[in-house]
Amino acid sequence: MIFNIYLFLLFSFLNGQSIQIAVDKNDILEGEYFTLEIEATNSNGFPEIDTGVLKSDFEILGGPNQQTNIQFINGRRSSIKKISWILSPKKSGKLFIPKISGFIDGKNFEGKSIAINVSKQKSKTPFTEIFIEAELNKKNAFIGEQITLTLKLYKKENLKITSIDDFTMPEFRGFWVEQLFNPQRLKYQKKMEIINGIKYQVANLGQRALFPMPANEHIISPINIKIGVEVQKKRNNRDPFFDPFFSSYFTDSKISLLKTDEIKIKIDPFPVNKPNNFTGAVGTFKLSSKTDVNQVKINEGITFTIMLEGTGNLNFFSFPDIVFPENLEVFKPNENFEKDVFRDQLTGKKSIEYILIPRKIGEFILPNITLSYFNLSKNKWDKVNSGEIKIYVQGKNESKNQENITVQSNNNQLLAKDIRYIFKDLSNSKNYLSNTLIYLIYFVSLFFLFIPSISKKFKTKIFFNTNKNNRKNAKRIALKILRKNNGQLYDRISSALYLFLKYKLNLASKNLDQDQIKLLLEEKIESSLIDDLIEIIVKCDEVKFSDRLQTDDSFILKKTILIIEKLDSKLK
Amino acid sequence: MKLFLQIFFIISITNAKNISEKFQHANMLMKQERYNEAVQLYKSILYEEPLRSEVYYNLGNAYFKLDSLGVAAWAYTKAHLISPRNEDIRYNLNFVNKKLFGDIRLPNKFFLQKFYNRISNTFTLKEWIFIGSLGILLFSIFNFLRKILLSKKILYSYVNLILLTLVLFINILIFNKYTSTKNKEAILVSRSSKLFSEPFSSSGTVLLVVNEGQRLEVIEEMDQWSLVKVVFNSEKGWIQNKSYLEL
Questions:
Q1: What is the ipTM of this complex?
Q2: Would the pTM of this model clear 0.80, i.e. be above it?
């Protein structure tokens, strides 16, 4: 019977928000489960809580499941958001769901703790109709010895199963696991089993081969399965719709949680005098090796196969290292494992295939391979050998190979290739590039880059005197200045004349001295031209240093140009 | 007694003042096919003078004769880095690489990159710095002359531009070469070593098996392990320090 107990109402917000935390039942049997539900009214989001607090006493079987209901009553919208978990107690007695705190829409909330009464089962009474069991073929084993685990479902013949949840086998911690059997659908064995005088149908839910890893003891944790079982609905005799005739069509289903017990497995230590080359093989094995051919030509491949057959932890140990003879090129091996699925014990064939290429003529011996293992049927150390294999390598192919190397040319034949011979002497040019040389070059470059711009004096004094180009350019520069349109005309004329004479005569002084010009030009030019020149210079000076208006513009400009051209031709 | 003789031998070697004498002695050992002793002697020369390409070359030859091709490839590469234009060194390096990996044709690079690589590899870093300094000198002298001639002809400005680009190019090249020398490169010397995903051989998975002679780039070092990148296919993994030699 399901009875709802809304334990408390937490608090209300102004706009009608409220949160309820509830369980659907608080008095349960061990192995049963209940639902924890948080219901938020008129909230925007789902409540968020930390489920970690539940995990100490409870196991979360399902959830969180979210559900939203929206109602419109008289035009007012109200919504209910539910979030729920299915929980199962881990132990019996009085348990408490701790205070659940969380937040919703950015606000915090906190609930009170809820008590859950878990009664002990009375000898599997609720499960006598249906239960599961993990069957092990042995409870103590050596490291690497196979333990077969079979998960079996027992049910009474008349009970009907409506659903089985997908379940996963747990992680078997401390074991290598190999899958032996995984059923696609529920299938009962033909033979029924009788337990305590009751006949049960039995179905195999899966079988695993477990190979324990080194430890003293391993624990196989419980396996949980949720199974839906059909229950007869209690009939209401007055109900006209559910009369006995229809009752077979309208059945109800109840979900039960089935659980296996925890099983401890004891690991036996190996007997003493363990062989040195033991790599972990446990079981019974046969080892053989073969090659596809016994005679090959040089540089042709051989397949070398090692076969390991038997029962045991075939895939869980490494092979001993094989030392191949020299001049035999070995490629990375291919490993292949074939499992024999029709047995409870893990049996199969493991093959390792090498490809070998001999690089030398002669006889090769492929080594004997020894595998040490623990023989379970005899309970003592044992070993198997594969045996040696001889291979004869012929050199017939060599001449053909040689042809590939030699390159035929018209005159000379390249027979073989080898490295060139050592150097006889040490060269002396050890440090022909000294750092100082490089620094020097950089310094000289710097010097050349910056000296002209730093020292103008340097520039005018040394380089202009020696330069013929400036003489050639003197006329061009002077005319350029004269043809400019800005500035006072007389200023331009005087500066043009000054620059012209300076370049032509290599003058050092800055002012144009009439006497000096006379002195310099007397020998080279007729006196009338000198007089004209001096007249212009004087006139320029007069205008420069007085307030007289500047007149006769075009005339004096033409005259100056004429004089400069004449001087230029004379002073070459 | 044998040990004593060996020690005596080594002391007598270290006392030999002249390096070229040692070199001649080692070459004589090579002629007598006493390769192991020759290797020791060459190594002792390199200990004193680490930038001798001839010694590296001969050391490579000795290792080649001893059939340890990976170390030979390392020695030749070292020699090649010191004197990149030596034809014999290049020949032997190619020969060993061919013997190690067969005729591997790398995918064709863009021709400009090929050209750049060829130019960059013909000179060592120091030589390039020297060339760069010469370029700057040329540029400055040219500009100096231009200034004092006061000429602004177009031709001059073109020449100036070309000189400037040349100087810039050389400087970029120098920078590239310098950064590549900052990367620690190495050559794998142990035969087919495994590249692990973690620096522990017990728990790491093997990513790749690398053959000797492969060029590696050392990215990170941790105790006895290093994170390396295989230059050929850019695979990364951890490898033990002892399985490679740094260039």
A1: 0.71
A2: no
